[in-house]
């Protein structure tokens, strides 16, 4: 994509030479433009038109003959003992077909994607606000809601544990205890000290993934006594297995069909939402639909871990890091979910993409009676990035060194060793990224005139005096890991079938907005020279592909599609190679034609197919990793991705209002597979990071969620999004990754909040140690007299 095209969407992307990304199936376009098909092309998503025209079939649009409606009764208390549950009034209501509680769960009463510790319905104790107590199926949604409200539950309200620091000494909130995991990382000499020491205490708020569409689904009973669940799952096979265990059924009698995913930045659906649906369908023998309200969505699904971080950085007189000491405390809420994995990322990346000879990190994840925390894009890494970059700003100020220069002196590179003892073997162009954003021209200052007052913090009529506005420039450098970590068995399976010039890809990798369906089409176009490629809908009748997290579908599922397509390519070319007495390696496919190296053979793919149907199935499994040991050491990660961001902000130092003017981004992408899609992913990640920095915080009062709606929870809008300038994409391929590509959207989310906080420090001189940044943290009190 050219820079002019990118500017039209307020994002600039450097012109990408098609050759830099390797030859594409369609070849370069006219006048040296990027290719029109295959890898390196800006192929549009297949569902773009349906979504823009409003015809995309979201899960909330599902319908079935004889449909019943479901509603879930949720706890109004964050911590309480259940003394009794009386469903008689609900059962007696006209139109009510079924009411289920914990007594009606025929199989396992607990579930969990990672740790099985969460009840389908609370039975003895309520551990968080909004925990499910019962579910109702009725012939009308209003009837279902009224029936759920008619269920009488007698509670003994208990004192909630909402401070994670107090969870260590509190009475156990769960049979497994309050401590989920403790990681003590020990690296280097504990007696090492630096000439300069800075300390800091940082707090990160509870960011909600806030999916575009709230949770919805449909469960349909099957004649064999099983059930089919239609929902926007991001990990259908895991959801199927969890549901089947709770239903007391074999997994092959439960089918999950993925439908209408509107986008996901974490675990799209709470499995506890799908399980009541299936129970009601099995109980009534009718299709049952549940469309959660926005309030129920906020109460049910997982959020980013609120985190408390204490840091001490040691450096020498030249600003080179000597030792980092840190304590990291993650608030997991009531259940474990992804807390162990999040803590591992937080501890491993606690020093950031910097060379640190000595590191001593203590990390804990604890249960509280706060809302449940789980997987949200960049979990663990985002929280520590905000803290260690705050420390780098403090060091720069104390030493009188330019903040960007201080970071450059400590930048990590390939061959360096992480505090976990793992050698960085993948490309790590941290210094190159930082130099790119530092050297990018700064934006112009707004004019001090009435027609430009919308450029000031607060917008028209909302800004204070222009003379109170200060501009700040700050930096953030972040890192994330690719794929699962600590021994996770990553594997995906894909089938490619070609018939009559049309290719079909069958893979259970869910398209969540990350672009996998588009990538799969491009891979097949590249390898087989077939323009028309379809990606089959996802369900659990297909082999598993795993969750849509950590860029794994680009790597693992994309790698499986590539291997299957290459196997089909061999089937296609072998007869021709045999006929002409040459190996298949001497034949190439481009622009729908098959040619030999010497030009003797030239035919079309269609002619070579000759009406045959070719297909192949393949798997991709990256090299294994290992868990962190008792000292936080181990090769826990398959690979790493890096990003540098320079933020420019304007701050009204009297009102504390903040406007992000520009975000300059340089990113380590490995290889650009789809320029337009990549630019969109980076822009979206930056915007989500700005939300975490300035507005997004799901607030609680003694464990109760306050304002669980999109008026109380402030998402950034198009008016809040700044100019996003993608100033450099480093295409240094990771040799162990298919195509050499790296994840695109998580690392901007991780890095952007730290950069915004750094810029506000620059503008105000205030410490800014809490995210999101509150107005009072940006106010500069004028000296008296």
From TrEMBL:
Residue ranges of domain Aldehyde oxidase/xanthine dehydrogenase a/b hammerhead in the record: 53-159
UniProt xrefs under Gene3D superfamilies: Aldehyde oxidase/xanthine dehydrogenase, a/b hammerhead, Aldehyde oxidase/xanthine dehydrogenase, molybdopterin binding domain
Region of interest: Disordered: 1-43
Domain of life where this protein originates: Bacteria
MF annotations from Gene Ontology: iron ion binding; oxidoreductase activity
Pfam families: Ald_Xan_dh_C (PF01315), MoCoBD_1 (PF02738), MoCoBD_2 (PF20256)
Coiled coil: none
Protein name per the record: Oxidoreductase
Organism expressing this protein natively: Streptomyces nanshensis
Organismal lineage: Bacteria, Bacillati, Actinomycetota, Actinomycetes, Kitasatosporales
């Amino acid at each position: 994509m050219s820079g002019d095209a990118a500017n039209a969407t307020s994002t600039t992307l450097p012109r990408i030479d098609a050759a830099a990304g390797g030859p594409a199936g369609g070849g370069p376009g006219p006048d040296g433009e990027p290719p029109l098909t295959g890898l390196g092309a800006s192929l549009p998503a297949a569902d773009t038109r349906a979504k823009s025209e409003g015809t995309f079939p979201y899960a909330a649009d599902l319908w079935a003959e004889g449909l019943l409606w479901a509603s879930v009764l949720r706890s109004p208390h964050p911590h309480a003992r259940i003394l009794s549950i009386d469903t008689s009034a609900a059962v007696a209501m006209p139109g009510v077909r079924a009411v289920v509680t914990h007594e009606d769960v025929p199989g396992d009463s607990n579930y969990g994607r990672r740790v099985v510790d969460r009840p389908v319905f609370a039975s003895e104790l309520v551990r968080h606000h909004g925990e499910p107590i019962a579910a109702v199926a009725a012939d009308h949604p209003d009837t279902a809601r009224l029936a759920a409200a008619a269920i009488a539950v007698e509670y003994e309200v208990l004192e909630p544990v909402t401070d994670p620091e107090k969870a260590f000494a509190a009475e156990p909130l769960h049979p497994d205890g309050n401590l989920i995991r403790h990681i003590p990382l020990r690296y280097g000499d504990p007696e090492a000290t630096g000439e300069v020491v800075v300390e800091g205490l940082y707090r990160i708020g509870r960011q909600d993934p806030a999916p575009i569409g709230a949770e919805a689904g449909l469960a349909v009973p099957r004649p064999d006594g099983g059930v089919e669940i239609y929902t926007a799952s991001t990990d259908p096979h895991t959801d199927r297995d969890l549901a089947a265990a709770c239903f007391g059924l074999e997994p092959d009698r439960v089918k999950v069909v993925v439908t209408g995913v509107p986008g996901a930045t974490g675990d799209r659906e709470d499995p506890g939402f799908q399980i009541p649906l299936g129970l009601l369908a099995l109980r009534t023998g009718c299709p049952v639909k549940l469309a959660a309200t926005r309030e129920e969505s906020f109460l049910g699904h997982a959020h980013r871990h609120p985190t408390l971080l204490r840091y001490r950085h040691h450096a020498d007189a030249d600003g080179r890091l000597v030792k980092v000491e840190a304590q990291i405390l993650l608030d997991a809420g009531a259940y474990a979910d992804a807390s162990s994995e999040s803590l591992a990322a937080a501890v491993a990346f606690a020093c950031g993409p910097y060379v640190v000879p000595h590191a001593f990190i203590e990390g804990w994840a604890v249960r509280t009676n706060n809302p449940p925390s789980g997987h949200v894009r960049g979990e663990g890494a985002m929280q520590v990035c905000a803290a260690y970059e705050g420390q780098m700003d403090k060091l720069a100020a104390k030493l009188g060194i330019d903040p960007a220069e201080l970071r450059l002196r400590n930048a990590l590179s390939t061959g360096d060793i992480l505090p976990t003892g793992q050698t960085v073997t993948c490309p790590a162009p941290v210094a190159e990224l930082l130099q790119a954003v530092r050297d990018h021209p700064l934006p112009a200052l707004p004019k001090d005139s009435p027609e430009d007052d919308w450029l000031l913090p607060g917008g028209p009529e909302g800004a204070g005096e222009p003379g109170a506005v200060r501009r700040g420039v700050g930096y953030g450098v972040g890192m994330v890991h690719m794929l699962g970590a600590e021994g996770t068995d990553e594997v995906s399976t894909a089938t490619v079938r070609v018939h009559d010039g049309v290719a079909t890809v069958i893979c259970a990798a869910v398209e969540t907005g990350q672009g996998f369906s588009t990538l799969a089409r491009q891979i097949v176009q590249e390898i087989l020279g077939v323009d028309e490629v379809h990606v089959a809908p996802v369900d659990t009748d297909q082999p598993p592909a795993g969750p849509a997290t950590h860029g794994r579908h680009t790597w693992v599922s994309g790698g499986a599609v590539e291997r299957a397509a290459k196997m089909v390519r061999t089937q296609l070319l072998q007869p021709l190679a045999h006929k002409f007495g040459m190996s298949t390696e001497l034949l190439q496919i481009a622009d729908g034609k098959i040619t030999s190296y010497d030009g003797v053979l030239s035919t079309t793919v269609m002619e070579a197919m000759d009406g045959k149907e070719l297909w192949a199935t393949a798997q991709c499994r990256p090299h294994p990793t290992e868990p962190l040991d008792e000292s936080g050491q181990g090769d826990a990660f398959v690979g790493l991705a890096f990003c540098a961001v320079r933020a420019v902000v304007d701050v009204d130092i009297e009102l504390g209002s903040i406007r992000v003017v520009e975000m300059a981004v340089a990113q380590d992408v490995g290889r650009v597979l789809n320029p337009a899609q990549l630019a969109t992913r980076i822009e979206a990640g930056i915007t989500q990071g700005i939300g975490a920095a300035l507005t997004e915080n799901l607030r609680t009062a003694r464990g109760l969620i306050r304002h669980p709606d999109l008026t109380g929870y402030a998402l950034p809008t198009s008016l809040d999004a700044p100019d996003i300038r993608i100033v450099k994409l480093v295409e240094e391929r990771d040799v162990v990754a298919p195509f050499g590509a790296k994840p695109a959207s998580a690392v901007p989310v991780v890095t952007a909040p730290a950069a915004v906080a750094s810029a506000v420090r620059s503008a105000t001189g205030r410490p800014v140690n809490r995210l999101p940044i509150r107005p009072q943290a940006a106010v500069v009190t004028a000296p008296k007299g």
